Amino acid sequence: LLGKRSPKAVRIALDKLPTGTDAYDSAYDSAIERIEGQMGEQTELAKQALAFLTCSQRTFSTLELQEAMGVEVGELELDPDNYPDIEDILASCLGLVTIDDDGDIIRLVHYTTQEYLERTLDRWFPGAEAMIADVCITYL
Description:
Layout: H1 7-16, H2 20-36, H3 42-55, E1 60-61, H4 62-70, H5 86-92, E2 97-99, E3 105-108, H6 111-119, H7 121-124, H8 128-139
Antiparallel strand pairs: 1-3, 2-3
Protein name: GPI inositol-deacylase winged helix domain-containing protein
Domain GPI inositol-deacylase winged helix: 43-118
Organism: Alternaria alternata (Alternaria rot fungus)
């Protein structure tokens, strides 16, 4: 809208913006594409965290998510040195994840984030449920 020089031009631009679910989908598509464009292990870190938070039937404490993400499939013991730093998880998720005010519960930032990720799970996180099952079996 910054480049529009008249009220009519602004109205036309606003009319072209997506609305409803399409608006959310467009915003979340862009966010996930930015996550996929990150350097190094940041993309995988974010996608793993988002997969756990999307597929889980309950909320995670920060430590629970770190433990889940630190599980090495096939290993017999947990190695705390393999737990990802919670600040790295937050940073890699580019605003899609937040920690509640009490500082212990980590969750998706909004219910629409959950809805979007559930609808597009196979697109962005193929094999997420199998990965989580492998982690759970190893953890036991």
